[in-house]
Amino acid sequence: MKYRSVCLAKVYLIVCLAVYGKNLAAQNVLIPIQSENSCLLLSTDNQNRVRMTYFGKRLRNNKEHRMVTKMYDYTDSNIGITNSAYTPSGTWNINEPAIQVTHADGNTSLELKYVSHTTKKVDENINLTTVLLKDPVYDFQVSLNYKVFIQQNVFEQWVEIVHQEPANVILHKYSSANLYLNDGKFYLTTFHNEWAKEMQPSESKLSRGITVIESKLGTRTMLLKNSAFVLSANGEANENFGTVVLGQLAWSGNFKMEYEIDSYDNLRLIAGINPYSSQYTLQPGETFKTPSFIYTISHNGTGQASRNLHDWARNFQVLDGNGDRLTLLNNWEATYFDFNEKKIVELFDDAKALGVDLFLLDDGWFANKYPRNNDRAGLGDWQENVKKLPHGVGYLVKEASKKDIKFGIWIEPEMVNPKSELYENHPDWVIRQPERPEVYFRNQLVLDLSNPEVQDFVFNIVDKLFVENPELAFIKWDCNAVIFNARSDYLGKNKIPQTHLYIEYVKGLYKALERIRAKYPKIPMMLCSGGGGRVDYEMLKYFTEFWPSDNTDPLERIFMQWNYSYFFPSVATDCHVTNWSDESVKYKVDVASMGKLGFDIVAHELDDTEMQFCKQAIQNYDSFKEVVWRGDLYRLVNPFENDMASLMFVTPDKNRAIVFNYVVNTRVKNIATEPITLSGLDEDKQYTVKEINLWPGSISKNNGNQTFSGDLLMNVGINIKLNKNNTSIVLEIKAVE
Ligand code: DGJ
Fold first, then answer.
1. Counting atoms of ligand 1 from 1, which one is nearest the CA of 550?
2. Which of 74, 226, 276, 357 could pair covalently with 191 via S-S, beta carbons 3.0-4.6 A apart?
3. Distance CA 178, CA 452 (A)
4. What radius of gyration, in Å, describes the C-alpha atoms of the chain?
């Protein structure tokens, strides 16, 4: 009897397990998130937790997705589940979490179980998948959002957090994304910055443990590091081969990127706002939306990944990414703060002589009680300085217009010098600790953009300029200080925790920019930050272009622009010819022509030949800028590995290309030992190869009289005799009709 009942119990258990197991198996949900070439596969496990099972090439047969989930099981009894799609903390997981909270009752545990998911077709090219997760114990939910730009193979991911607990919940960590990449030996390239040394790459093999790239600077948060990254799955990143993921957090505040190699040698990538000093108190019913994490995956190396990002950025992110851009002459390096109305009007003649579209008046035009004659005073007092500009900005706009030149102006609206009327009148608008000594960065402090009055102030600076000068055609928006002594008078008075400041600052900035764009949708604005301290995809929603660096030495710019080009399209990359170095004017112009061309020189000091060259080069630029701005970029010869650099832009129809070639090491006598192998052309077409931007009087062997097949140009290449005396060569390649 006893034996029989044990047997029955056993059978019952087996049946139960079978039924239960079957049910669970039936419940396993597959969530394929697919672009043209790639698939990010989420699936639920037997505990209803969502895992990131696969991120790689798109499979031919969707039916095999279920097989994929069977191939991997990353459950580790020591630490939990390593491939969770959004790792909670305080329950089964002891990995680095993506989210960490304290519930209304003080409990610190969080479980997130799958509830449902939807995939919406936004349009022919965009799908949006939303996965809803809930805590079974607390009324707390998270939705994971994945927007896929199908043709571009770009993924945009963000998270929304909301609860209905009886009181506030504290969010300690609230990442935008938690990716899991397997089957690799991962190499990570990150980009480190300093003033005049932006985008310095550093590649290394990731080893066990967590590599953290973060910023705590509050604003201009990329001054020291950029959140942009290149991840290569097997060996060092290659331009044409291998699986790579490139991306960036679209956030202009503190960020934290965590790259963890786990006990399976797989990569956990957690990206989001830096939790540093940023606990967020979330009220019942309030939704916390994280910034977007934007990335692409390429199975053909970094070249394809960059083309994906450029295509996406131009079409969906950068303001007016497919629109026109203005060539310009800036006066910063020509005059610094030392100018007056007469001098500026004279410089309009330079702009006219060169043939650029616009004159850009830089820093130093404003403030009266504390005139802006250096960087120690006046910031915040946005009235024309009556000594320098007795007839105001309006006069300059009109004078420029008489010469058929557009006029643009510099502002730095988020900042204040302590020596200013703004500071005297509104010390409560300044981020500072009133009980402690002030700490300055370039003699200035940051305004508290969490305060709606400050947002109005910032909006009004721009609005007033345009209302008074409707013909104003361009804004350069600078940002030179980081946040020290983080404390907001406004948050304090409104009983909002100070730990919201870093977030509310950025949101306040976006609000001000939203208003500006609502009223002035397409006015070109340059995003500058004491050089390139602030280049992120979110800011580029509001800006048509960015300033990569104050360092305009063309030799160094080749390397910098090469690195920026991994992520940002040339149409948004401002490149100016200046007197920063002694390189030839031709070399400078040729380098600057790879982006959006501008000048910051005293043009009337150029000799006749230099002037003749510049004028011709600007005309050439006008004729080929469409190819550079909207063509596909091929980085042909890497200056980090060679004595030269070569980059090529090709129109999508493969009929026209511009190839930029530069010597980067003049100590080597013979650079032109081998041909440069071109890319992106049609093997079956015939092409002419013609050198443009020739120095007046010089004759090139590449005169366009000969034709070459695409086959030859792409498989053998062409030797263009780049050498010590010909340090930069620009080629125009045209298909023969
Ligand atoms: C820093 C910018 O990077 C420069 O181009 C220039 O605008 C100065 N600020 C003006 O102060």
1. 3
2. 226
3. 33
4. 28
Looking at the domain assignment, is residue 685 inside a domain?
yes
Distance 666 CA to ligand 1 centre (A): 31
Cα distance between residue 236 and residue 226, in whole Å? 20
Neighbour tally for 207: CB within 10 Å: 9
- Residue 251: inside a domain, yes or no? yes
Domain count, the chain: 2
Q: Which of 284, 317, 350 is the last residue of a domain?
A: 317
Distance 83 CA to ligand 1 centre (A): 45
- d(CA 186, CA 230) in angstroms, rounded, equals 10
Ligand 1 centroid from CA 175, angstroms: 33
Both structure tokens of 609:
């030949």
d(CA 686, CA 736): 6
pLDDT band at 27 (very low <50, low <70, confident <90, very high): low
* Continuous segment of H or E residues that includes residue 401: helix 392-402
Say yes or no to pLDDT of 167 above 90: yes
Average pLDDT over residues 108-126: 98
Q: How far apart are alpha carbons 685 and 707 in whole angstroms?
A: 10
Residue 8's pLDDT is what?
40
What dihedral do alpha carbons 263, 264, 266, 271 form, nearest 10°? -40
What average pLDDT score do residues 595-612 get?
A: 97
Q: What is the 3-state secondary structure (H, E, C) of 2-45?
A: HHHHHHHHHHHHHHHHHHHHHHHHHHCCEEEEECCCEEEEEEEC
471, part of any domain = no
Contact 660, 732 (CB under 8 A): no
Instruction: Kindly state the tokens that stand for 315.
Output: 């079409």
Cβ < 6 A, ligand 1 pocket: 332, 362-363, 410, 478, 480, 528, 530-531, 547, 550
Domain assignment of residue 109, given as a range: 9-317
Query: Is residue 184 within 8 Å of 55, Cβ to Cβ?
Result: no
Residue 125 lies in a domain: yes
Q: What CATH number is attached to the domain comprising 678?
A: 2.60.40.1180
Of 269, 288, 317, the position where a domain reaches its end is 317
CATH number at residue 293: 2.70.98.60
In the predicted structure, residue 22 carries a pLDDT above the cut 80: no
Nearest residue (CA) to ligand 1, atom 1: 530
Which atom of ligand 1 is nearest to 529's Cα?
3
Q: What is the rounded distance in angstroms from the CA atom of residue 709 to the CA atom of residue 684?
A: 7
